[in-house]
Amino acid sequence: MALAEPMVDDDTLLARIAGGDRGAFTVLATRHTARALSVAQRVLNNAAEADEVVQEAWVKVWTKAGQWEAGGSARFSTWLHRVVVNLCIDRRRKQGFEALEDAPDMPDPAPAAGSLIARRQMSETIAAALAGLPERQRVAVSLCYYEEMSAAEAGRMLDLSVPAVESLLARARRALRGRLTALGITGVGEDEE
């Protein structure tokens, strides 16, 4: 299969992958790796580990492609993200949690302008608050807000109902708002409740 066929649907690509078609695998991986990597990085808060998780997920795709049921209840992208999330959760459980405060700060190559510094500090504060959430809330926030999935899509990935996902999101927003308010940051997310 040539890379010139990027419009082939995922189910067809999986069928070709099951037959050993490396070109189909390349097209599918090119199509979905960036979002899978984004999910893994948000859950793990570690780019190197996220990359390893996504590679492991693609190995599963290659070895299990023949078991995929075309036209089933879930889209391939939903299944892939669920595999990535489960691998992230397994990895965190095995290794334990490293606090964000213990991670080394990376120098910012951008010019040291006041607004850039303030924006970066706000992002770090929000990331630290997000990292302090319970795992299921953090995953729900990552999927719905950062990956822009609907509650229904996130629910399918997490094997939860839409009301359960919405409940996780509501609890996460309250917890984040409380943590940010304690740091003197107000007005975050108040219009969403």
What would your notes on this structure say?
- About 65% of the residues lie in helices and about 0% in strands.
- The longest helix has 23 residues, at about 20-45.
- It has 2 domains: about 5-95, Rna Polymerase Sigma Factor, Chain: A, CATH 1.10.1740; about 110-193, Winged helix-like DNA-binding domain superfamily/Winged helix DNA-binding domain (Arc Repressor Mutant, subunit A).
- It has 8 helices and no strands.
- The model has no long low-confidence stretch (mean pLDDT about 80).
- The protein is mostly helical.
- The radius of gyration is 19 Å and the shape is elongated.
Q: Secondary-structure element order, as H and E?
A: HHHHHHHH
Give the N-terminus to C-terminus distance in angstroms.
Answer: 49 Å
Can you tell me the residue ranges where pLDDT is under 50 for at least 5 consecutive residues?
A: none
CATH architecture of the largest domain: Orthogonal Bundle
Number of spatially distinct domains: 2
Quickly name the level 1 CATH class of the largest domain.
Answer: Mainly Alpha
- Largest sheet at a glance? none
The outline comes out as: elongated
CATH superfamily of the largest domain: RNA polymerase sigma factor, region 2, helix turn helix motif
Beta-strand proportion: under 5%
- The overall average pLDDT, rounded, is 82
Structural class estimated from helices and strands = mainly alpha
> What integer value in Å does the Rg equal?
19 Å
Total strand segments? 0
What level of helicity do the residues show? 55-70%
- Enter the CATH topology name of the largest domain: Rna Polymerase Sigma Factor, Chain: A
- Helix count, DSSP H or I runs of 4 or more residues: 8
Protein name: RNA polymerase
GO molecular function: DNA binding; sigma factor activity
InterPro entries: RNA_pol_sigma-70-like, RNA_pol_sigma-70_dom, RNA_pol_sigma70_r2, RNA_pol_sigma70_r4_t2, RNA_pol_sigma_r2, RNA_pol_sigma_r3/r4-like, WH-like_DNA-bd_sf
Keywords: DNA-binding, Sigma factor, Transcription, Transcription regulation
